[in-house]
Amino acid sequence: MNIHIYQNSKIKNLCAFAGCILFLMSCNKDLPSPTPIPYTPVNSSSTSIGAEISSNPNYTIFKAAATRVGALGRLSDSSKTFTLFLPDDNAFIASGISLDDIPLLPITTVGAIVNYAIIPGEQFTSADIPATFPNLQLPSALTIGVLPGTTVPFNLTTFPSKNSAFFYDNNVPVVTPDLKFRNGVIHIVRFVVAPPSQLLKDALYSNPDLTYFKAAVERADSGSTGLSRFDSLLNYALTN
Fold it and tell me: Does the chain have fewer CB atoms within 10 Å around its N or its C terminus?
């Protein structure tokens, strides 16, 4: 009986993390293959990112997650190129996720964690990240739908940045940058970089210090309908 209570409690805790991601996942589509951008491997290395993840004991949780959603084979393909903001086991544990949790999380949540860490099609080293505003905006491998009226997939973006002392992905610091492999580069991050959990409307309208801004949006929307309304755009994931 105690075991069942513990398992139920564990699943409830994981659902709190999953809830931040699941609402974006209902219209996931497969990501098209990125255009390869070849480069000369450092030290003539023949190791792919996927092979490194498979063999390194520090990456067992990401390996399990990537295997579950079918991403490990993609990261092993040396004809493709990737930038990977990789949470090692310490980063997963610091984020409240253990190896035993990976089979318990919804597969859409696991896919969101893995694909949001992957930038397909090009390698970005720390030297490529500007320290000036605005931050670099890069499409991740996480697809949340298609652009309206088209078949073009919409990929959730991530924002690498840098200042004089630190290198970040979104607000998560990179602890080990520029690990180069045959098909791209790995940056080890301190925590799991989770996809955004709110729309702009949620964030703005729930803030008690932004009531004047909300009133201004409502005034600006007077007489407008549909997606011509600012309110509609703020509540639409593809325009956030």
Answer: N
The Cα 112–Cα 205 span in angstroms is: 26
At 51, which amino acid appears?
Answer: A
Q: Which tokens hold the place of 213?
A: 């801004």
Angle at 38 between CA 36 and CA 43, to 5 degrees: 145
User: What is the C-alpha to C-alpha distance for residues 228 and 208, in angstroms, rounded to an integer?
Assistant: 26
- 230 Cα distance to chain centroid: 26
Q: H-helix or E-strand containing 9?
A: helix 2-22
**What is residue 143's predicted lDDT score, i.e. its pLDDT?**
85
Count of positions (residues) in the chain:
240
Can you tell me the distance from the alpha carbon of 97 to that of 13, in angstroms, rounded to the nearest whole number? 10
- pLDDT, averaged per 10 consecutive residues of the chain (240 residues), comes to 49 52 46 45 69 95 97 93 96 96 95 95 90 85 77 84 88 93 94 83 83 85 76 67
What per-residue confidence (pLDDT) applies to 67? 97
Give the Cα separation of 147 and 239 in Å (integer). 9
Token pair belonging to 62: 């990401």
Helix (H) or strand (E) holding 211: helix 211-220
CB 156 within 8 A of CB 116: yes
Q: What are phi and psi of 164, to 5 degrees?
A: -65, -20
Distance CA 68, CA 71 (A): 8
Do the beta carbons of residue 76 and residue 50 sit within 8 Å?
yes
